[in-house]
Design brief:
Helices cover 78% and strands 0% of the residues. It has 445 residues and is an all-alpha fold.
Length: 445
């Protein structure tokens, strides 16, 4: 099959995916699965081999993702009910003071989104930003944009959040490098798109919140000190980073590196943190161990959707590899000397803009990029940069086809034009800033 025909097959697959989601209103899981099967058939893969590719792609991907996303979801839910988010919010605001509240909120969003899904973190904390707006008589966007930027950056760039976990698994990236580069690209992006942009847009949309709901962490169970909450959130990240760094410095055969290779594996690191938080939360007044168990289990419902969508992305990747289509795509990219970083960003951005879902954009772009990695040789750090490039592309230009757009619009009482000027521009700034940083880092790796 010629490169031209392969390109037509891929374009047809993407078009079919977009029509399935936007016109037929299919959920992302069957839409991705149907797209992968269609691409496999058009690529000439025999039916029996196609079925095997579906099984291998789903099983190979979910063996890692299901465990990490499931444990991460439980960890976040336990942190929520134990009052950890309330402690983080009140402590950061007290230490930064009202004048520096936007910076504190950006940092708060960055920390909270590590264990908690984006929409959950926003809904929990939105009374805080509306309360600050009323209390100070300043525009609500002065406080909302930094919080949203912090939440969005971590949600897109920092494992163990589901998006970067899924892309990392599909590309075979080392999570330690992904965390490191995600922080290097994400923190400056959060500052520019958060506190800095908030000062500008708040003057353009000087709407003071009239929301009567005040943030009151007392409805959450009283938890331990701020230091404990920060430590428990940082624990799995530090263990994963130490696993990567010690393996690189000492060599994987070194006894110390082997120890941290075990406890710093994402499975074990998240399991340790989740168990600590489970036994801590089960000792809180008013909660029995059975109640905490039920609360933790309830977190798996939203996680299940992400796990299945990621598995369908794994099927797409496997079919591209098994059909040989992915190899021909890689050869075509090398022939035209296209930068993998740029291509990863653009593919994710186009899918994101057209169909809205950042998760679908990340997984689709990762599925298209994965065959390139199997056909060419890239360093471990470079593959991690590809993960962040895809995440950056999947972040930009959230608009009316994205559920996050309407979540922000309704909770902050903004009309569509105001939401486009604030939220949409903010997400675009995050994506462009992160892509710029990744492009610069790629010159040295």
């Amino acid at each position: 099959m010629s490169t031209f025909l392969i390109l037509l097959v891929i374009l047809a697959g993407i078009a079919f995916l977009l029509v399935s989601i936007m016109y037929w209103k299919l959920p992302a899981f069957p839409a991705l699965l149907l797209t992968a099967i269609m691409v496999g058939l058009l690529s000439g893969l025999p039916p029996e081999a196609l079925i095997n590719s579906v099984k291998n792609g789903m099983g190979g991907t979910l063996g890692f993702v299901a465990i990490v996303v499931g444990l991460g979801a439980m960890f976040g839910r336990l942190l929520e009910v134990s009052g950890g988010i309330g402690i983080l919010a009140s402590t950061l605001l007290n230490r930064f003071g009202e004048e520096n509240a936007p910076k504190a909120l950006g940092l708060l969003g960055f920390i909270v989104a590590i264990p908690v899904f984006f929409d959950v973190g926003f809904v929990i904390l939105v009374p805080l930003i509306t309360g600050l707006s009323r209390q100070s008589n300043k525009p609500v966007l002065l406080y909302a944009i930094p919080l949203l930027a912090g939440l969005a950056v971590t949600h897109s760039f920092i494992p163990p959040t589901p998006g970067p976990i899924a892309v990392s698994e599909l590309l075979g990236a080392d999570l330690g490098w992904v965390i490191l580069f995600g922080a290097l690209a994400g923190l400056p992006s959060m500052i520019i798109a958060g506190p800095i942009y908030a000062k500008f847009i708040a003057n353009k949309i000087p709407k003071v919140s009239e929301n009567s709901i005040a943030f009151d962490p007392s409805h959450l169970k009283k938890s331990a000190a701020f230091g404990f909450i920060c430590s428990i959130i940082a624990l799995p990240l530090l263990l994963i980073l130490l696993n990567t760094l010690l393996g690189a410095v000492l060599g994987k055969a070194h006894p110390t590196a082997q120890i941290f290779g075990f406890i710093g594996h994402p499975f074990i690191a998240l399991l340790i943190a989740t168990l600590i938080l489970f036994f801590y939360a089960s000792r809180l007044e008013g909660y029995s161990r059975n109640q905490i168990s039920s609360i933790a289990t309830s977190a798996l419902e939203p996680a299940g959707i992400i796990i299945l969508v990621t598995g369908a992305g794994g099927v797409f990747k496997q079919i591209l590899i098994d059909s040989g289509t992915g190899k021909l795509i890689a050869e075509g990219m090398l022939e035209y000397a296209l930068s993998p970083i740029f291509l990863a960003f653009i593919m994710a951005a186009i899918i994101r803009i057209i169909q809205g879902s950042a998760t679908v954009a990340m997984i689709s772009a990762a599925g298209l990029m994965a065959p390139l990695l199997s056909s060419t040789s890239f360093s471990t750090p470079y593959i991690a940069l590809l993960v962040i490039a895809i995440s950056a592309g999947a972040t930009i230009l959230s608009h009316v086809n994205d559920s996050g757009f309407w979540l922000v619009s309704r909770y902050l009482d903004l009309d569509e034009k105001e939401t486009l000027k604030s939220w949409t521009v903010m997400t675009t700034l995050i994506g462009l800033c992160a892509f710029t940083i990744v492009s610069i880092l790629s010159l040295f790796i």
